[in-house]
Amino acid sequence: MLKMMGRLCFAHKTALAPMVRVGTLPMRLLALDYGADIVYCEVRMDIYTHTCHISVHLNTVDFVAPDERVMFRTCSKEKGRVVFQMGTADPERALVVAKLVENDVAAVDVNMGCPKEYSTKGGMGSALLSDPEKIEAILSTLVNGISKPVTCKIRILSTLEDTVNLVKRIEKTGVAAIAVHGRMKEERPRHPVHCDYIQAVAESVSIPVIANGGSSDIVKTFEDIEKFRAAAGASSVMLARAAMWNPSIFRQQGALSVEEVMEDYIRYVSDTTAAYFIRSVSLLCMSVFCMSVLCSEVFGMTDFYNKTKAELEARKAALQTNGDQ
Ligand code: FNR
């Protein structure tokens, strides 16, 4: 019972879907500001993340690979609502990654839908869908090994019966929710989303089902989110491309213009990357230059630019005083 307290609940929610190169920290914070309840990070492969060390900065917590690449960046503002998605085909390595991130995230998700070769050739992503024993081993190991909720994101199988049988097996592992992208692994965004499959899944399990795949066919406005949820008979909805095109789709009062969204986005990029830039004075100078072009000339955000520039220059002076290049 104690384990359940304060845990992220996946029922009746809207979520920003995991998106490689899109679902970075500034985008996730924007989606939360606009009204998303839950945000997923871009998929991170266990092979690259299991050896990360944690680096705490002024505004962020970074998970840094041995080659110094930041594999996952998060901050306190999203702590109770960010889901870390991993690509894995190895229960033990998955557990190492999950334990590494569990104190800084709200839940851990396993990607079981990616059809790209870089996932499937290692037995990850949609390759897992044809290996239910592996799925059970990974999810059970995670559920038993960490204190945060564990979820997975699947694609549908080629028959309704197989899809329902698989999700029933998944539910038995103790996962907190299942996100269902209503397309088969061979299908592309141009193919219609199979709401009937998502509905059958939702009817066959008692955990929350998060409907996904509605961006091309159904979801163009905030109101359409509810239409998609109802059509799929699901508890929750997850949006990828509709939110990538304009994350203010989560705004109950209506979407903002792309120009307004970009201003908000630049503010978050500045807030969440300054700490990284100040590690090097030369990089810091570059960031000030890029911001001046973007803010002053493209977006007319001169006041914001001047204020941020003054802050960054103060940090630069402090760095130079300390002799840290
Ligand atoms: C994706 N998708 C995806 N899925 C996933 O589980 N992990 C990931 O890292 C990614 N990366 C990703 C990047 C980009 C640019 C796109 C467009 C999509 C798939 C995504 O989460 C979702 O399942 C599909 O896009 C269908 O949902 P929509 O777009 O119809 O809302």
UniProtKB/TrEMBL annotation:
Cofactors (names): FMN
Keywords of this entry: Flavoprotein, FMN, Oxidoreductase, RNA-binding, tRNA processing
Domain of life, source organism: Eukaryota
Any single GO CC term annotated in Swiss-Prot or TrEMBL for this entry: cytoplasm
The UniProt record lists the keyword Calcium: no
Record flagged with keyword tRNA processing: yes
GO molecular function terms noted in the UniProt entry: flavin adenine dinucleotide binding; tRNA binding; tRNA dihydrouridine synthase activity
Bilayer-crossing regions: none
Protein name according to UniProt: Dihydrouridine synthase 2
Residues represented out of the complete protein: 1 to 325 of 468
